[in-house]
């Protein structure tokens, strides 16, 4: 079975995440997809007045309902920084007979070589990269080639339709590209004010 793993801070999840997940499922022929909200992301500082872990987990479940996929709280249950290396090793041990695909947008593909133990990650999974920014689409093959050359492993670049939105845009109210269920949850809980 082909299992996609889609990690993120999901603070909050937005329509860009949802469309990316749907594209990954259809274009790469995934059988299962698991959203994995991070505890403490290694690469970014969560803004003040942000959603707490339970609220991010709840909103990630709402996104999963839209996608028709699963959620794993394994990074939230683990203490400290959420390293993809640990998550992928855990899932590879849990699903030894399946093929794992780690899903990421352009920004993550660009910086992947600088992640913690990227070679370890590539031992257990294929990277499945989606475009999140049309201006960067043509650079993706260059990032793929660089990763494969310096680290080995396999990177698949998917030709998805781009939805240019970020969680920052949602928090700053400069975009409304978010499912109604999540928008209502944010409003009801007074998040990101
Ligand atoms: P923030 O604005 O807070 O930095 P973000 O929008 O980048 O957040 P994350 O939850 O940090 O969202 O992203 C998780 C994963 O989803 C990353 O691999 C990222 O590249 C990808 N991603 C985020 N937004 C999009 C999008 N619009 N299209 C495709 N992939 C996306």
Layout of helices and strands:
Layout (H helix, E strand, L loop, with lengths): L1 E7 L6 H14 L3 E6 L15 H15 L2 E2 L2 H4 L6 H11 L4 E7 H6 L6 H7 E6 L9 H12 L3 E4 L8 H5 L8 H9 L5
Parallel strand pairs: 1-2, 1-4, 2-3, 4-5, 5-6
Helix pairs in contact: 1-2, 4-6
Bound molecules: adenosine-5'-triphosphate.
Query: Treating each run of at least 4 consecutive H or I residues as one helix, how many helices?
Result: 9
Report the oligomer. Answer: single chain
Bound heterogens, unique: adenosine-5'-triphosphate
List the uncertain runs: none
* Strand-residue proportion: 15-25%
CATH architecture: 3-Layer(aba) Sandwich
What structural class should be given to the helix and strand makeup? Answer: alpha/beta
Tell me, briefly, the overall form: globular
Would you list the SSEs in sequence order as H and E? EHEHEHHEHHEHEHH
Number of individual domains: 1
CATH class: Alpha Beta
CATH superfamily: HUPs
Q: What is the spatial order of strands in the main beta sheet?
A: 3-2-1-4-5-6
The average pLDDT is 95
Distance between the termini: 42 Å
The helix fraction, in percent, is 40-55%
Major sheet: size, sense and barrel closure? 6 strands, parallel
Computed Rg = 16 Å
Within the CATH hierarchy, at the fold level, what is the topology? Rossmann fold
- Give the tally of β-strands: 6
């Amino acid at each position: 079975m082909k299992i996609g793993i889609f990690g993120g801070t999901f603070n909050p999840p937005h329509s860009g995440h949802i469309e990316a997940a749907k594209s990954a499922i259809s274009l790469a022929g995934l059988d299962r997809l698991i959203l994995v909200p991070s505890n403490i992301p290694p690469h970014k500082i969560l803004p003040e007045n942000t959603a707490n872990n339970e609220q991010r987990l709840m909103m990630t479940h709402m996104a999963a309902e839209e996608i028709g996929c699963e959620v794993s709280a394994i990074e939230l249950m683990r203490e400290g920084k959420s390293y993809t290396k640990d998550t992928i090793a855990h899932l590879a041990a849990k699903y030894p007979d399946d093929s794992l695909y780690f899903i990421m947008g352009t920004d993550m593909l660009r910086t992947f070589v600088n992640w913690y133990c990227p070679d370890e990650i590539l031992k257990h999974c294929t990277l499945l990269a989606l475009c999140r920014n049309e201006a960067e689409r043509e650079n993706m093959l260059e990032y793929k080639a660089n990763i494969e050359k310096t680290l080995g492993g396999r990177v698949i670049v998917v030709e998805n339709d781009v939805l240019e939105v970020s969680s920052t845009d949602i928090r700053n109210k400069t975009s409304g590209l978010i499912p109604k269920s999540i928008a209502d949850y944010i409003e009801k809980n007074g998040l990101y004010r």
